[in-house]
Structure formats: C-alpha cells, structure tokens
Amino acid sequence: MTQVPKGIIDKDRDPEQLLVLLKEAQDKAGYLSEEVMAELAESLSISRSEVYGVATFYSFLSTKPLGRNVIRICQSLPCYLKNYQTIVESIEKEIGIRPGQTTDDDRFTFTLTNCIGACDKAPAMLINSDVHANLTPEKISQILKDYK
C-alpha cells in the first residue's frame, strides 16, 4: 500500500486545485497510486473517476511507478517532421526499452508526449526537467551517458 504524501490530503482544499494537487502528490510519491487518488477524491468531495480521468489525461502525470530518469520524447508535428522516428529508435537502442516501459534497474522510464515546448529546437526531448534539443543519434548517446 502506498503512503499518501503528507500535506496533499487536506479537507480545506478546493476541487479546482486538482491538477496542482496531483502534481504535488506525484512529486512527493513518485507516481499517483490508487490509494492517493482515492484519498484525494474523498478529501475534495469529487468522484474517483474524475481524479483518475485528470491523472490519466495529462502525459506528465503517471499512475504507475517511474524510473529515476524520465525521458519524454516530443511527438508533435515539428519534432515528427525532423526525424522523430530516428530519435525514438536511437533511445530504444541506447537503453533497451520501448516507449511506455521502464528499465529493469529503474534508471529510465521512456515515454512519448505531445509537446515539451521546444518546437523551435526540434527534435527535442525532456529528461526529468532538462530539455535537450536539436537531437541526433550521436547527441542522444552522449546525453544518456550523463544520466547513467
């Protein structure tokens, strides 16, 4: 059973803060467990399905445990047009997993997202909160070595 992070569940919270509260809970616990989402729903007097719907809608929220380093590859149009598939394949080769997976040692989680706000530097990826832009297979290899 996952422990609910202290300071997240509070009867005085406003349901309009749901997204902020989910982000806080994930930052503290690493992911959004069923227990955390259920307690959050109860404390905000909203349905579990509403909490789950928000938690699963946003690609930066996760309902399953994540690795220490979360690699998010931008798949929006600017990145897609600038060798998106080559970038995805390079990461798969470097870390040995496909999008949606976590390495056995929990070092990396690899995921796809619609935008990371770096369209002017496409193709781009986000590792944790670090933006890496103008990617090439060679750059990816060097970048990932820094996170290993």
Task: Write a concise synopsis of the structure shown.
Helices cover 41% and strands 14% of the residues. By secondary structure, the protein is an alpha+beta fold.
Distance between the termini: 29 Å
Mean pLDDT: 90
Strand order of the largest sheet: 2-3-1-4-5
Question: Helix-strand pattern, N to C?
Answer: HHHEHHEEEEH
Q: Which fold name corresponds to the CATH topology of the largest domain?
A: Glutaredoxin
Based on Cα principal axes, name the global outline. elongated
The total count of helices amounts to 6
Describe the overall structure:
By secondary structure, the chain is α+β, with helices and mostly antiparallel strands. The protein has 2 domains: 1-65, Arc Repressor Mutant, subunit A (Orthogonal Bundle), CATH 1.10.10; 69-147, Glutaredoxin, CATH 3.40.30.10. It is 41% helix and 14% strand. The chain has a 5-stranded mixed β-sheet, with helices on one face. A hairpin with a 2-residue loop joins strand 4 (125-127) and strand 5. Helix 5 (84-95) packs parallel to helix 6 (137-147). It is elongated. The model has no long low-confidence stretch (mean pLDDT 90).
